[in-house]
Amino acid sequence: MERAPRQKLPITQKATHYRVHYLALERHLALVYRLRGFSVLRATGAGPGLYPEYLVREAVPVDSQQEAAQIRRGCHSHDLGLILTMLCADGYIPAGACVIDTERPRSPLDAYKLLLQHTLDPLHPDCVALKERHRKNQFFNKQARIVDRSLMEWLKKQNEEPHRGL
Question: Domain segments of the chain: what residues?
Fold first, then answer.
């Protein structure tokens, strides 16, 4: 029986370690091992902003083979180290130090405001692209227009005021 190609978990590879976001890991575990409702934050005991690190081995230890088989059948476990080792043994992630990114994802509006702080231009291609990605989000569009208007008024005010020398 031929196996379907493995779906890779999106990770950021570094020289000494790699990083995976907890939400991507939760989605991947639901897809691969049917672990729906699994909470990486609860399993790690970490809160947002903490970055737990796990040493992922290439093979599941002999004394954990039975628990690994149960997890593969969809039984829940809170042993994240074992689950990560299983992902490695099954070919989804590499062996090595795995850092779990526990930062909460930014809202589109927060991402847009941060982008505007750097560009100071609502017509900058990155700003336009972000607004285009979220064009169906009415709340975002309304708030983005308010932020754009406020920024333009502030920039106009800055240009009108004479600059004071030190």
Answer: 12-101, 108-160
Spatial contact of 137 and 145, defined as CB atoms under 8 Å apart: no
Q: Give the residue, 42 or 106, on which the prediction is more confident.
A: 42
pLDDT in tens, 51-90: 999 999 999 999 999 999 998 888 888 899 999 999 999 9
* pTM: predicted TM-score of the whole model, two decimal places: 0.62
The 17-21 sheet, strands edge to edge: 12-13, 17-21, 96-101, 53-56
Region for residue 55 given its phi and psi (left: phi exceeds 0; alpha: psi -120 to 50; beta: otherwise)? beta
Is residue 43 a contact partner of residue 71, using CB atoms and an 8 Å limit?
no
How are beta strands 53-56 and 96-101 bridged, if at all?
Answer: antiparallel
